[in-house]
Structures are given as C-alpha cells and as structure tokens.
Design brief:
Elements (H helix, E strand, L loop, with lengths): L6 E4 L9 H17 L2 E4 L11 H14 L5 E3 L5 E2 L11 H13 L3 E4 L3 H13 L25 E4 L7 E5 L3 E5 L8 E5 L2 E2 L1 H11 L4 E5 L6 H11 L5 E5 L2 E2 L15 H6 L4 H9 L14 H7 L10 E2 L2 H13 L3 H9 L6 H4 L4 H9 L11 H9 L16 H16 L8 H15 L2 H13 L7 H8 L1 H19 L1
Parallel strand pairs: 1-2, 2-3, 11-12, 13-14
Antiparallel strand pairs: 3-4, 5-6, 6-9, 7-8, 9-10
C-alpha cells in the first residue's frame, strides 16, 4: 500500500495495567493506520508523577505487543524510543510545553489565576444555585502581578473570549457542537513547567504531526477545550473520531465487577492473543456481513471508521469464551500442546516420563472441550495423578458395590486380553459399546469405568482416556477401583 500522510496515536497513562478499552482503541488506531498506509505512534502520558510507574508502562507496552498490535514510532516495548518527533514520554517534554505556554502568556492568550480553592468552590456553589453550568469566569485576566500573599497559589488559564459555537466534524459521529461560554476560562497548567492534560495533548499532537485522533467517547468533552487551545496557538485541528464506550452485559460502565478488565488478566487466564484481538476488533466496529471469526489481515483490510457504531459496545465474556474456544480448536495438535503445557501445573519430572506423542494425545482430550488454556489443568490433571475418590463414586444410580465390582472385573479381564499393539481408541470404544449393548444399559458400563480411570464423574469419554493412558496404566487404575470396592464390602 502506498504510504499516506495519515498519522494516528495512542497515548496511555502508566497509572495501571493495560485496560481492555485502551487496547481496543489502540487496535482501532493500528488497523486504521495499516489500512490507509499511515503511521501509528505510541507516546506515554506520564505527567502525573504521583501515580505513574515504570511497571505499568511495561505492562502496557508488553500487553500491546502480546496482542500483536504494532506501532511505527514512539516508546517501544523494550523502553527505547524510535522516531523523529520525540521524546515520546510527556515527562521528558516539559521544556517544549514551557515554550508554548510562554508564547500564550506573552500574547495574552493565557494568564495567571490566583483564586483560592475556597473561592472557586464558592463560585461553583453559587452557579449551581442559579442552575448555571459550573465554569470559572476569572477576574484576574488582566492582572500582571500576584495579589499580596498569593504568589505560590497560581494556576494558568486560557483566556476564553469565544462566542461562536465550536463545531467540529467527527469521523464517527458527524457534526458535533459545543457552546464555548460553558467552558469559562479553563485551567491549562499548574505552572510553565507543569502542564495539565489538555494543553500537553494539544502540543504533543501538533509536534508529532498527528492528523487523526481516534480515541474513546469519554474524551468528547475534552475536544472543545483542545479546539480552543489549537486556535489560540494558531495550529491546525486534527480529524477527530470518538469510538463508543465499553459496557458490561448489564449496560453499566465496564468495571471489575463484570470480570477481568486488564489484558494481562486475560493473558494469564489462557486467552489466545488472536482470539482477543478478533473479539476487541468487533467491539463497536461491524463490517458488512455476519462473519465473526476474522484474521488480523482481514480486520485490517476491512477496517473503516465509517463502520464504527455510535452506540456503546457490550463486553460479553460469554461471547469471548466462545470465540477463544474456536481459536483453541483451530490450533494444530502440536501448537495446542505447546501452549497448553505452559498452563499445566505438573512436575517436570512427571512430564519427562511421557513422549511428545503421548502428551499431544493426553492434552488433546481437552482441546475440543475447554474455552481457555487455563482450564487444561482441571481438565487433564487426573491423567498424570489419579485423584483420591470414595468407592461410592463408582456406583451408577441404583447399582451398588457388588454389581459395580462385577462390571469392572469383566472389563478388566477383557481389556487384559487386548494386545499392546491393538490398544487404540477404536478398539476400546468397540469393546465398551459391545459391553453396554449386552447389559442393555450404557451408563452401567461407562460410568464405573469412567470413574475408575479418571476419579471423576465428568471427563472425556473413557475410551479416549484409556487410549491416552495406555494399557498398563488403564488396567492399573481399574485394579485400584476393584480394590476400593473390595475393601468397602469387608
């Protein structure tokens, strides 16, 4: 694709782990940039020194990299910086902000305000009583010197004299209007070396030549302030596109009570990066057609801001589980085994006793059943270590110890006659089916042998388990069951 002049960015704050909402916005920016042949920039907004931490920066960068979201310039996953418009951490750009703030102050586009916190609160209470929108109309606009005793309590505000409506075109929502009078003289910096969010963002987007700002709907309220700052500084307005909020299934704001909200949590739980990428892409974006399982390449090729909806997107973990299950089942046997082993809590000494083929067979029992890789532990741990169970667990409905013992003894004898080279899923399935047909009761045969070889009421089919365990271990486990039943009858 021919490179374009489009430049987009994601600018997370390292005050917590990579949130699914931030990841979704990053994905949209990445897909858009790749689709139009533009550049995708990642910068770190770490001016909040009290809450910003390097560990969260690493979590964000590594989480995006794990998801497969690639960026062209900015702070890279190893902490280095790449690109010609850096530095890409706001904490390293204070001199740049100071230059623009001084320009605004010299041109009377901004001024120092010395109102105390109590005065501002009093002003706000009065406005609420009059049912007016809360805003600060500063009386210090033309003061050059600080009032006596107030030199340490100043803040810098934008001189807002705008009267005409602020109108901008949103690539997703169409025309958006704001009344500038509702903003008042809003604050833009604590000092010349300590800018607030809106000012720093405007300077960064301008300096880094960002042409398209694709961000969450919660930032719409920041746009008129940024628009006025851009106008005061004489810089161009980028194209805005505000993507819909993420809600839980109860249609409230997505939070911890809905489940995991960070990418690292989903990674730990055994979600596949491709599946989570696919799921996040469809949160608020819907291409033509009903296709839901899509490759990264398909997503990039089809992505368009015109197909992004304005209504909130529902983060449905049930659907994510289904989608992740599809991706798990689409893995090759070898790839599934490699991934599943990293979630299996079995001593290496035990695992070393099995060949690669045996491990693929054992782990493969759950490939069609699990929704996340983390479930592999619960699914196959019994294959490596038969859990303890009560003899009564072997009983099927009204059957008791003597009847169950008879069933298992008959199966033990028949299984013992199968040669090692004929020990297979097909042969075992046929033997159990024949026994069930003779007994005219499938459950009376399948249930006790299932419990005998797994120690559980629920498991993969017993013939699959025995095939994976091998003849020797399968017969040993049935003998364990027979011994339990014998002791129970004493």
């Amino acid at each position: 694709m021919t490179p374009s002049t489009h430049r987009v960015r994601i600018a997370p704050s390292p005050t917590g782990g990579l949130h699914v909402g931030t990841a979704r916005t990053a994905l949209f920016n990445c897909a858009y940039a790749l689709n139009v042949g533009g550049a995708f920039v990642l910068r770190i907004e770490d001016t909040d020194t009290n809450r910003s931490e390097k560990k969260w920066e690493q979590d964000i960068l590594q989480g995006l990299e794990w998801l497969g979201i690639q960026w062209d310039e900015g702070v890279m996953s190893d902490g280095s910086q790449k690109g010609g418009y850096g530095p890409y951490r706001q904490s390293e750009r204070r001199e740049i902000y100071a230059t623009f703030l001084q320009k605004l102050l010299r041109n009377n586009g901004a001024f120092y305000c010395w109102h105390t916190k109590q005065e501002l609160q009093s002003e706000q209470r009065l406005q609420m009583q009059k049912k007016e929108p809360p805003r600060h109309l500063c009386s210090y606009r033309d003061n050059v010197a600080a009032p006596k005793g107030q030199s340490e309590n100043s803040i810098i505000r934008l001189r807002n004299d705008a009267v005409d409506p602020i109108i901008f075109s949103d690539a997703i929502r169409g025309e958006v209007r704001f009344q500038p009078q509702l903003l008042g003289d809003f604050s833009i910096a604590r000092s010349e070396n300590d800018p607030l969010y809106n000012f720093a963002v405007v300077i960064d987007d301008h300096a880094m030549k960002i042409t398209d700002v694709i961000r969450g709907e919660d930032h719409i309220s920041n746009t008129p302030k940024q628009y006025l700052l851009q106008k005061a500084l004489g810089i161009e307005h980028p194209q805005y596109a505000h993507v819909p909020l993420l809600l839980g299934t109860d249609r409230s704001k997505l939070s911890k009570r809905h489940g995991a909200t960070s990418i690292n949590e989903y990674r730990t739980q055994g979600y596949i990066a491709d599946a989570l990428f696919n799921f996040l892409a469809l949160l608020g974006w819907r291409p033509q057609g009903d296709q839901e399982i899509m490759s990264r390449q398909e997503i990039v090729e089809l992505f368009s801001l015109q197909d992004v909806q304005t209504s909130p997107a529902i983060f449905d973990t049930t659907k994510l589980d289904w989608m992740n299950g599809v991706y798990i089942r689409n893995l090759s046997k070898q790839e599934f085994t490699v991934r599943a082993l990293s979630y299996l809590n079995v001593p290496q000494k035990t695992l070393s006793q099995y060949s690669q083929e045996q491990l693929e067979t054992i782990l493969g029992l759950e490939q069609e059943r699990i929704k996340t890789l983390q479930e592999i532990q619960e699914g196959v741990s019994f294959m490596f270590d038969l859990p303890e169970y009560e003899p009564s667990l072997l009983w099927y409905k009204e059957s008791r110890g003597e009847q169950t013992q008879k069933v298992l003894r008959s199966l033990f004898d028949q299984l013992s006659l199968i040669p090692e080279h004929q020990w297979s899923t097909a042969a075992l399935k046929a033997l159990l089916a024949e026994s069930a047909e003779k007994a005219d009761n499938k459950g009376a045969i399948f249930h006790p042998v299932r419990v005998a070889v797994s120690g559980r009421r629920s498991s993969p089919p017993p013939f699959d388990i025995m095939s994976a365990l091998g003849k020797q271990e399968s017969i040993r486990r049935i003998q364990v069951a027979l011994n339990k039943l014998s002791r129970q009858q004493l």
